User: Fold these one by one.
Assistant:
Number 1:
Amino acid sequence: MNIFSRFTLRTLQKNKMRTLVTIIGIALSVAMFTSVTSIIVSFQQYLMNMEIVRDGTWEGRMIATNEQCIQDISKDKRVKGMTVMENLGFAKLGDIQNEDKPYLMVKAIDDSFTDYSPINLIEGRMPKNSSEIVLSKHLEYNGGVKFDVGDTLKLQVGTRYYAEKKGDKQLPVEMEPFQAGETLKEKSEKTYTVVGICDRPVSEDYSAAGYSAFTKKGEEKARSYDAFLTFTQPKKSYDILEKYTKTGAYTTHQDLLRFMGNSTNDRYNRVLYSMGAILIGIIMIGAISLIYSAFSISLSERTKQMGLLKSIGATKKQIRHSVIFEACVLCAAGIPLGLAAGLGGIGITLHAISGLMGKLWSAGEKTKLYLVVTWQAVLIAVIVSFITVLISAMIPASKAVRIPAIQAIRQSDEIKLRGEKVRTSRLTYKLFGFSGMLAGKNFKRNRKKYRTTVFSLFISIVLFVSATSFSAYMKVSTSGLGREEDYDISCEVTEPKDGSKTVSEIEKEIEQIGSVDSATYRKEGCGEIEVPEEQISKEYLDYLEETDPERINESKKTVVIAVQLELLQEEAYQTYLQEKKMDVSKYMDTKSWNALVWDGFSVYCGKKIKTMNILKAGETDAQLLIPKAMKGYYYSMHEGSDYVYLSDEDNGEKRISAAEAVKKHPIHLGKRMTAAPPEGVANSQWNEAVTIVLPYRAADDKVFDNMANPMPYTSFALMAEQHEKACTELSDYFENQLKDSSASGSIMDLAANRDSNQALILIIDVFSYGFIILISLISVANVFNTISTNILLRRQEFAMLKSVGMTQKGFRRMMNYECMLYGFKGLLYGLPVAGGLSCLMYKSVAGGLEVKYIFPWQGMAISVVSVFIVVFTTMIYAMSKIRKDNTMEALRNENL
């Protein structure tokens, strides 16, 4: 160790407080860098694990291909692993209620299959031979056919065909939905014993013509094959599959590849890494500010020492190495502390929120969020931290080495007088007396020292307000993606065909379930209304002219718009009207059809979400357009002046004029509502339609007879504090009581979805406030270090003032003025810049969502109060140290 290194160590030991604060600043910075990199890696691994639990480890899949393609791809060295599912054929079950899924799809697998694609057993076990089978629970609750473990199943397994005009055409296995008129051929009889029941497998496509059934591979010849593959180069999975799939189809596991960073669509990774880069950038600004201030003050104090060293032959290189050595010593102490604090803190945080993560996704309950430490993440944190310290040290060092030796010894660059007089205002003298005037003159004579302090306050204000704005927009981005229903459970009930129970009776029976607090019901349907063009908002008219100009009838001066029709239970509707102080008789009268209206929807316009109203303000008359039913056809769409119907048999198209296809009924669009709709009424943000509400008895009107799109369901909105228990009891009610009356029902637990959203917001709060607290600590340490060191370096100056008679009261006045000067200067520069950064964040969020600008008044108010608290507290601490000094000793000592 050379003389310069020993000299640097002695300087660090001598200034223990400044050294300690600098080490703490480095440790905080490293902790935050480590936290950011570790969070990114941990969340990426969590999402990968969750996707594997939900959908398997496969990266590419060949579907319904032949044996030759399987053999060819298995020889490719880029294939890391592979399992093959044999498609044995389809078997028809006569009792299946779902007309679009009349088959069982029999598939043969081996023991390795579940390593690639999960099969979640509910009861029983996996098959051990080719005469055993596992059935999907989906067959029971969707198809209405129930089998128990131990049942024997005789099947005629064959290949699907459907007839065309010229002969028969074989349908690819699993690749086409069921079509009326198709038949099974090449059948063979097979007997299976049911040994297990599983959840609906993820390998089964939602449009598949049958329900999955799994047996063990045997000697039976497969009709086609599905291959599930992993690759040594996952990013090339698409190219590999395209090369070898000669028949059938192929797909890639896009979600898994995206989380692995191997997707061709790298939007997810860009968002993740760009957010990490923004956070690291903010932390670097705070860290450089803190560490720069420490080194700047240290070098300012040691300027005379450096001048003396230069005068006896020290080179610029030796002095620069001394500064770098000081940075390395501080890093050696601060970086390990920061790594330990960052990894420990984020590990505890991730463990604490792991339970909340399970509420966000169904697969999350089986996947734990834990800290993942990779050497790459730690190395990035260490390198970024070390570079930050070096930048902070080299900026002031490069200035110090350029000062000539004589100038450094005399310290003539510290105080510079301007051409104009060094004046202070009369108000300063009146408020703070001679001491305040002296502080003001000193500030003007020695701006360089004070500039460092003001800069520290400026950076602290900018960082804190930016962090609070970042947190606010993160919450807006999360909560602004959809509107939440204000009820707990939604269920749809098909009314009994035999008329044995009315909707009102079903509602009363549901309310008698102990865990259900209240229930309301409604019918809902989609349709169209014809509105005068002058009642359409200009914004929506412009939008229609670009996207669907055929809806505008120039000759009639009308516009056809989509409508969401809600027929609400009379008691609930009447209560709502009374609560909102509306005209009950007007809106409950079904003869005149006066409707309450909810308007407004959101749509993606380019890369931005735009919200607009369809109608202008005010009431208006309109015509409800109801397409008629046509035998053998179903209504498809409204295209220009024609209504398009498709055949039930061969998808043949028939176009009918509006006059022939539509029944019209006058409707009055009443008050435009801004308040929340009645409990249970759907008002989707993403539905390009006007929501109108009428009383339930309007459903009895003959205008709804012979509708092309009837409303067979009655939707119930339930309030239930114990929503999970209520869902279970409702399921029992539907299965045991409604089934006997030929009715059926489905249930959706909306309260569970709401819990997921609240968990997500809580997680964002945890990370946001954790980030704000750490940024605040860096900012406080920065200000404390800068102000306290500057004050302590002025011991000789204060001793001289004492020697000429300045009292303690005079010192307090001078320091109070300096504190106010620091605070106001920092706020004057910091608040506008922080507001500007907040605007930039708003523009970034507004690029994807239509949100209002959130002025960061709360962060600014906290900053104003905190700045003066920190400044005055630091000043009191520093002055308490100086008060103990001996005046003569302080005057003698030139380097304190």
Note: The CA atoms of residues 154 and 191 lie 4 Å apart.
Number 2:
Amino acid sequence: MKDGWHREAEPAYGQNAPAPPWRPQEDDRRYGPRPDPGIGGRPQEHVRPQERGPSAERDWTRDRAVRHPEAPERGAPGHGRTPAGEGWSDTGSRVSFGLASVVWLLTGIGFCLNAAAIAESSRGNAALGEGLFWVSIIVPFVVQAALLLAAHPSPRLRQVIVCLVGVYPALLYRLTSPLVLGNYDEHLHERALSDLLHGSGLFAPNPMLPVGPYYPGLELFTGALVRLTGMPPIVAMNLVPILCRLLLVLSVYFLAITFLRSDRAASLVVVFYATSPQFFNFNSKFSYQTIALTLGMGGVVLLRRAQFKRAPAAPRLMALATIVFLATVISHHLTSWLFFGFLVIWAVVSPRGRRKVVAQVAAVTGLAIAIWTAAISSKLSGYLGPVFSAALHEVAGTLGGTSQGRVFSSSGGYVTPEWQKMLLFLYAIVCTIAALWYGGRVLLRGIRERRLPLAVLGVMAMAYPGTLAAHFVPAASDIGDRASTFLFFWLALCVAYAIRNGRSSRQSRSGTLSRRFVITLTTIVSLAYFGGIILGSGLAALILPGPYGIEAGARSQDAQTLTAVKWASEHIPPGSRVVADLNAANLLSSQARLWPIISPSGGLAPAYLYFSETWDTYQAEVVKNYDIRYIYVDARLADGLPVQGMYFYAGEISPEQRLNGLDLSKFAHVPGLKAAYHQGPISIYSTAGLGVPAIRDGYTGNRSIGFGTIGDFVLGLILAGLIFALRSRLRWIGAAARDAGGVGVSVTLMAVTILLSSGLFELGLMPGPAFTVGAVCAVAAGVVISRFTASPVRLPRFFSFRQIEPMSLIGVVLALGGILLAVNVAWNMDITQVNELLKNVSG
């Protein structure tokens, strides 16, 4: 029977299931040519090799290398040759000497250039800073992409380069504001994390994101990391996105290997995926989509591995995948829905023997989504309903010619430079052609050869240009961006598959890829990477720090703003009601734990406190109706229109109406208003003189968590000691870990941490860092004691310093130096200047 990925149906796990798929890594060189076993290839009967060969996945998953039965023996004719018409096997010598030095040296130089860019931009040298930034991010990517495509690095070095393709841009993004979260969405989750660490338990109300507390996966994992290690929350909030990015690119890489059967082609999928619009910016944020995307891709990897395993490994992997998808369900709404839809499609197109694996996990995931969504349907409808209705309204207006959105500019006067516009057009053209051409070819091949998975892959790839068209409708652009994160993986997989199985003209006479093809592809991908960053970052000029901007994200949280927020956190009781402009309100919520009033109700609009040159009965009624205790006023709001298109909230007033000086200076002359804080352009007025009661909303407490230092230490000592003593009876855990591989184990631990910490935080039992110290002491004592027994514990050896090349070490030192320099610049802006301004506060 013909199906999609393979030509014949295969038996289900536990019923003479096939061995794990042959890994085309170092074994290509050892066992020679093979038929193409990629997407749509024939099922393969595997035999276990007499000796275990290295595998590109072994370092992370410890899979057993499997020899293809049609591969000739060593010395036989045809051994070691590249398959005819391909050029994508990983034959040839694994040249790693010198490549590692190039990779790490350029990475280190890139971090140093990025630090210089941040420093120059913060001094007002915007042009120089932006130029250094683009060089720091583009040059390392070009070299990484070229090495993955043209060179023959060792499996371990290839994995390192793949990791750098993902982690390096995420680190650069985090370093633009390493000491204070720099994005609006990030502060929404910072508020939830702050409440959790103060002992609120689950579902504490969030004034800025009402639906956020009902998807607490990100905050639970980060909170557990803070509690168990004792690290500052800001450090954890920077580390979690980096960890998620690392696991995401490895999941993409190993998942692509199972489809394409080539580590080089899988590397190309990662490189292509790095050009997606949200790769640099949004998916590097401390946001619930970031962790949910990582969990979802990790769950797919576990399921894909389960399809190639026999019992009892397959049921174990299915159980782990189920745990991971359950954690995804409580981490992000849209992400879990999209992955569920993918699981359903995957189950339909899978061979009969492998359909059961996916179908069972999809059923459990769908049930969990239905229950969770039904329980919070009112919250979801209130959050997502306006988003989709506004998008549909603007789409209709755009098609009817009654509305027109800004594509290359903002209301605040920031305009995209002409060279960036050209790159954006080029990016759109390249992605559209790639999606339609390669997707169409794969679709036609799937129809012609009756391979349903190929046809579905082609359709999903061809759907991507729709996400680009959404950018012409401002309200729909966010929806298109979210969808692009998921559709771009299938576009990358489709293009890599089509290129890998393309014409032999891409090869040189030696059978390797031709130099012209490598240079052309690297150039196109690099330009697409450039365009993807610009498209996903909105106004690229706002990526780096710089002068204050009105409602301009990180540019709006300068030293003056941070000083006022810090003063409020120390002098205003948590939960106090306050009205402020959008970005200031978000900071007051996340860092001072205040309760901003951000939307109108009952026919009264808080924005009209500001959009009036006089104070009359309407303003007094607004203050008393909302019980507003404090009014935050920044005189700089009168300097221009807001970059984000609103001062306070959507629909506040006419989009083109701006505040003026009289609107903001009137508060100083209102009887009953008292300036509790004044520093530079910012004042915070108290309304106590108007008779407004001091009402406090949200969680305002500070409950102790855990069992105390001694109790946590003893608990860690006992639990770790018991696990260590019973390790011989827990060997099934080790077997499951070997089946899952390093990526699978990591995402499973992340999911288990989320699920377990939900109960511990809710009950106030989440232990602190003393628990970790006790656990480490117990394990260390057990290892020492085992040395005097018949079965001593052997500690793993990860690497040897002898393997590190001197130039690689220099690159690592340069990278650390660049990171420290960037942190030092941020320290001067966000800490030193704030402390100096606090000394001159009047009120």
Note: Confidence is low (pLDDT under 50) at residues 1-38, 40-95.
